[in-house]
Amino acid sequence: MSGVSLEVSDLTVHYRTLRGDVHALEGVGFTMADGEIMGLVGESGSGKSTLGKSLIRMDSRMRHVRGTVRLDGEELPIGDQAAMTPFRYHRVSLIPQYSMSALNPTRRIGRMIDELLESRGVRPASVRAELLRRLDLVGLSGQVLRRYPIELSGGMKQRVVMVLSTLLDPSLLIADEVTSALDVSTQRAVAQTLVEFRDRGYLAGMIFVSHDISLVNQIADTIMVMYAGKPVEKGTAEAVVNGPRHPYTRMLISSLPEVGVTHAERRLEGIPGSPPGLLDPPRGCRFRERCPLAFDKCDQEPPFVEVDRGHWAACWKAG
Amino acid sequence: MWRYFGRKLFVYALTFFVAVTINWMIPRFMPGDPVRSMLARASVGNAEALEAMRAYYSSLFGLDLPVWQQYLNFWGSLLRGDLGTSVWLFPTPVSEVILGAVPYTLGLLVPAILLSWIAGNKFGAFAARGRWLDNTVLPVGYLLTATPYMWLGILLAWSLGIVAGIFPTAGAYGFALQPSLSWAFVSSLVLHWFLPFLSLFLVAFGGWAIGMRNMIIYELEADYSSYLEALGAPRRLVRRYAFRNALLPQLTGLALQLGTIVAGALLTEIVFSYPGLGNLILEALNNRDFFLLQGAFLFIVLGVLIANFVIDVVYVLVDPRVRVQMQGGAA
Ligand SMILES: Nc1ncnc2c1ncn2[C@@H]1O[C@H](COP(=O)(O)OP(=O)(O)O)[C@@H](O)[C@H]1O
Ligand code: SF4
Ligand SMILES: [Mg+2]
């Protein structure tokens, strides 16, 4: 791990809705080192997917309000669909949550891949050998290229998508809840495969979104915790799990039965209260309503500061 | 795969069997003496001809035979291609009358169905591109599909035929002409064909355009489209996939709509006095010509069944999902 590969600062993204703007990301800032696998955790609705989408392709309802994203020192034009296109797939890629339905059902997989590659200016023949090698690595024969998606099992489709998404060796891979639909042992295998991809240089860095902290803990170098559209803590997986600084992270960790033990249901639940609405988010610390440590100063927004070497937290009591 | 088609064929055969049976029953179980009432309505002045007809139909109905025998005889002659003799055009065989009308009906229906399906789908996909287009196409499409075939036909006949005087509004070709391969005849044929064709085309076109527009919007929001877009695939590729996948439900829609379209064509023929099966049915009703009516219905049922079967086959050829599942099922 050396050098900074991803630098996000003050990233603010809203969803336009009929009832007003949903402040899904507000002043998000963090960095990722080259080769880093960052686990991104947080309750459902905390903005994980929004962050992932902002880095590759905003949907039509999203609005880039302010903030910058730099990848390998180069600014990504995230708010500009056309200007962003050259970066997609080549530099930033995605393994979606919906791998099972990500492939066009009426095209043979090989043909669909060739058509995608051609449309991105890559000669399919030039990556053919690599494609076959990587399929083999995930335990698939080249035969799958002649199949239709319906002929593959869910796990096979997932592996095809993993190989396809990383075929051009992106600098940043976003894996959004890729394991949520799988059973526990498959979850682990998929996560392990992605680590192997990183080790082999198929991807330089990865944001691994999950709401399963213990799975994240097993494969991620660092963990970032989000709450109501903001990062509240980021640090090495070890530091975040064993020495959490933010009260929200602490509650998350302590609500787990036992970190590191294999068990299916270890979701981010069990904290009383619910996160604030994002149509009109409250001023000050967004966790204040549910925070047992809240005090007067918390009506001002706590900055996301380095509380220890390589360990950031946004809480007045964390320093 | 063969099992699938075998099952389909069986269902079609059963449908045909039921249709034929109902067809056979209608004149026989109507109140009154079918032969007498037919002949009473038939405008035959010549007493000798009338007597010949009475003799013919009485023996044909075979009223002295038991019912099951009559029924079997009916099937027997049907399989020999013998549909009886027309009352209205006595003594022309019904099959001959019908075969004379079928080309006109097919000549209207086949181009109207195929062209409206193709053009409607292309146009619907095109309309889904822009808001402005969408806002104009959608209401026009709904208006067209909601218009009854008769109305549109009458409207077209009145505006383009009677008021503007561009197109003739009755018959298949000019009264003075005899069928031949001459320029005069062919151009007259085309002119007479155009308005009934157009009214059929327009009503169906609106429906296909709306269907495609809705389907393609759905496909463009499907997961495989989002994935391609996230990987920077150009709009062109995503649209191509979406269009192809949206065509499949439209094909199913075609199979479902076939009956309605055929019924529409029959009405349209009546509006334009176009000498196809629709017109024949009208004449048969007016003249109490049960044999002709039976024959025409049989042909229509047969035509719709065949067309449905063709669509079934095409669907299997173009949708790999169905094909794969069937192969899996057969193995
Ligand atoms: N299309 C949308 N329109 C309006 N609000 C949305 C939309 N998508 C997500 N949101 C809102 O944005 C916030 C963040 O959502 P998301 O990024 O999907 O969270 P997560 O992935 O962490 O579960 C939530 O409050 C959610 O309700
Ligand atoms: S800033 Fe205050 S309210 Fe927010 S987490 Fe820290 S102590 Fe709790
Ligand atoms: Mg999400």
UniProtKB/TrEMBL annotation, chain A:
Keywords on record: ATP-binding, Nucleotide-binding, Transport
GO biological process: peptide transport
Pfam family, one: oligo_HPY
Keyword ATP-binding: yes
All residue ranges annotated as the ABC transporter domain in the record: 6-253
Residues making up the signal peptide according to the UniProt record: none
Molecular-function GO term, any one: ATP hydrolysis activity
Coiled-coil region(s): none
Entries under Gene3D superfamilies matching the protein: P-loop containing nucleotide triphosphate hydrolases
PROSITE patterns: ABC_TRANSPORTER_1, ABC_TRANSPORTER_2
Superkingdom per UniProt: Bacteria
InterPro entries: AAA+_ATPase, ABC_transporter-like_ATP-bd, ABC_transporter-like_CS, Oligopep_ABC_C, P-loop_NTPase
Name of this protein: Peptide/nickel transport system ATP-binding protein
Organism, as annotated: Marinactinospora thermotolerans DSM 45154
TrEMBL record, chain B:
Domain ABC transmembrane type-1: from-to ranges: 102-311
PROSITE patterns according to UniProt: ABC_TM1 (PS50928)
Subcellular location field: Cell membrane; Membrane
Keywords, alphabetical: Membrane, Transmembrane, Transmembrane helix, Transport
PANTHER family, sorted: OLIGOPEPTIDE TRANSPORT SYSTEM PERMEASE PROTEIN
Record InterPro entries: MetI-like, MetI-like_sf
Pfam families: BPD_transp_1 (PF00528)
Keyword check for Transcription: no
GO cellular component: plasma membrane
Record-stated family: Belongs to the binding-protein-dependent transport system permease family.
Protease listed as a keyword: no
BP term (GO), one: transmembrane transport
Membrane topology of the entry: Multi-pass membrane protein
UniProt cross-references to CDD domains, sorted A to Z: TM_PBP2
Protein name according to UniProt: Peptide/nickel transport system permease protein
Transmembrane segments: 9-26, 97-119, 140-170, 190-210, 246-272, 292-318
